[in-house]
Amino acid sequence: MEFVGNHILSVDQFDRQDVERIFAVADQMEPYALRRRITRVLEGAIMSNMFFEPSTRTRVSFGSAFNLLGGEVRETTEVKASALAKGESLYDTARVLSGYSDVIVMRHPEAGSVAEFAHASRVPVINGGDGPNEHPSQALLDLYTMRQEMNGRDRNLDRLSIALIGDLKYGRAVHSLCKLLGLYENIRLHFVSPPELEIPADIADDLVHGGHEVRTFHNLEEGIHDVDILYVTRTQEERFPSQDEADRYRGLFRLNESIYTEHCEPNTVIMHPLPRDSRSQAQELDDDLNQNPNLAIFKQTDNGVLVRMALFALVLDVVDEVDNHSQPVTWFTAKRHQLS
Ligand code: CP
To answer: Are residues 280 and 150 in the same domain?
Structure first.
């Protein structure tokens, strides 16, 4: 795809070459994300970070990524703090905000809403998650982390085997990730969920038609055997028609150290898009796995900054200028490294 000046709304926009391009630019961003160098390539640019649903990782890492490239960030974090609460349309909001910004990141609870907003925007819009539909930047950072983990095992992403566990119906990160995995060769996917929360049929069908192997499991212990990666997800309670219905699935599938040790190969990578639900009745990913050397969840969150820096650099056409506008660390960042 042509990145410059375009919206990033769905992983359907990418082919394998596009994904590899994003990853190459993300690799280039590492010294800046680690504060070993400073770049001011986006000095004077403004990003509007519009989050109409709760977020920690996506909102803050998009903001940090833009700051690390030298740009400034304006935050709107709730519908009630915006004129949407007074009945303003997404169309008008987009027309207004795009007059104040060079790029907009948006999260919204309704599927398709970010695309609707982007249609009216005069600057690029990046989807930070639209209801149960898609979460493109999460899927990219997940795949980037899988690539790192597999490289450490002298593998690439072709012939990867992965168990996707939990609420596969409403989990937008899983939906986007499955589409990206489909760009690689001979992937084996174990879909492990309650029968009512299975992956949408169109996503599974596309994978089968792409020559990948898809297996469905309704039992955790059976589904996690013989895979390279476990990708655990939270029950997306906020998407269910009622809390009573959501409660039926809470704590149904829990991965912990003893289940992992009994049923998985010793080097099976453990991932989760986060947040994990750490309340006692849920715990889909038990914190007794926190010291497990194969737990990659905080590598995922760190990689979110690199991947989001790459998206900004590509869309705003500054990839080739990042290093030209850079300098060694300041006194403060040098001190920060001494402290850590
Ligand atoms: N993974 C993810 O989207 O996390 P946040 O909801 O905290 O942004």
So the answer is: yes
